[in-house]
Specification:
Layout lengths: L16 H9 L1 H8 L9 H8 L4 H22 L6 H18 L3 H4 L8 H16 L2 H10 L7 E4 L6 E4 L2 E4 L4 E5 L2 E8 L5 H17 L8 E7 L5 E5 L3 H19 L2 E3 L4 E2 L11 H5 L11
Parallel strand pairs: 5-6
Antiparallel strand pairs: 1-4, 2-3, 4-5, 6-7, 8-9
Helix pairs in contact: 1-2, 4-5, 4-7, 5-7, 9-10
């Protein structure tokens, strides 16, 4: 049975793909993202406001994930054909809701006068349509969720996906996972630009989650990167025991790298901001939500 476990709060630094990617990209961005309350130069309210900025690609991905989870929840209750007209209405309503709530970096930094429904709705619709027309949809409907087969599945949870990998606090928020005849398949929806190397690393993290948190052996785990645009396509992986072990070793090294920037690693208390230098990569700065704080807007 798949389950998302609950853990009591600890101040321990928690590893995630996104946290380490931020750390590797720019130490100053990492500081502002994860240690907001420790900054003495800028008001925490300003840093938080900038941290909440989103972008059109990010919001497209968020909307797609919310809608995909809703479609999967619907299939878990009934395998009858989905009413496409009602689904189209739901998609538009959800995208509009996201638009109303979001604060876009493109607008804040005056790169665009506004972000409107036609900026988001077409790519979201295309992603959802691609899934509905895919063999993966048929597999979910006709194999995974058919009553009486004793299958188990896990649909993206509302929490952060806290788990333990080799004893380390980590976050792995799986989009969809299903057990069919003892085989665990982990599916990750991809709505943005294709990056096979980055995706492979992320899916190895999910494989480690399956092994260390859910009790599967690597031979029982398959990973699927499901690309939803410009057309549907998949990259299927079968991680080996050596793959998972190498990932865990790499993750442990990354945790130690990040802990080295803490004055008190056990409490996850950082050194001063001066220990977190700005990147010299101007391309990173052009897309950073915190560039106002670094006078790089």
């Amino acid at each position: 049975m798949l389950a998302s476990r609950k853990y009591p709060f600890t101040p321990e630094l928690g590893w995630s793909v996104s946290r380490y990617n931020t750390f590797a990209t720019c130490r100053r961005q990492y500081y502002y993202t994860y240690y907001t309350k420790f900054d003495r130069e800028h008001p925490a309210s300003l840093i938080e406001r900038l941290k909440q900025l989103t972008t059109v690609p990010m919001e497209t991905g968020t909307a797609v994930h919310i809608i995909m989870a809703a479609v999967l929840e619907r299939l878990s209750k009934s395998q009858s054909d989905i009413n496409l007209q009602r689904l189209a209405g739901f998609v538009e309503t959800e995208v509009q809701r996201r638009l109303n709530a979001a604060r876009f970096a493109e607008v804040y930094y005056q790169e665009a006068p506004a972000v409107v429904l036609p900026d988001l709705l077409p790519p979201v619709r295309a992603c959802v349509r691609a899934f509905l027309d895919s063999p993966r949809y048929s597999w979910v409907r006709d194999e995974v969720m058919q009553p009486g087969r004793g299958n188990a599945w896990l649909i993206e949870s509302a929490d952060y996906g806290e788990c333990r990998i080799a004893g380390h606090k980590a976050y792995c928020k799986v989009d969809f996972a299903a057990v069919v005849e003892g085989q665990l398949t982990i599916v990750d929806w991809k709505s943005g630009r294709r990056d096979d190397a980055k995706t492979a690393h992320q899916l190895l993290a999910y494989a480690a989650w399956a092994v260390h948190e859910q009790g599967f052996t690597p031979s029982q785990v398959r990973t699927v990167a499901a690309y939803l645009q410009p057309e549907y396509g998949e990259v299927v992986g079968q991680p080996s025991t050596a793959d998972v072990a190498a990932f865990v070793e790499q993750m442990q090294a990354q945790v130690e790298q990040m802990r080295a920037y803490c004055a008190n690693p056990d409490q996850n208390t950082p050194h001063g901001k001066e220990a977190f230098p700005q990147t010299e990569n101007a391309t990173v700065c052009r897309h950073c939500c915190f560039r106002q704080l670094c006078d790089r807007a």
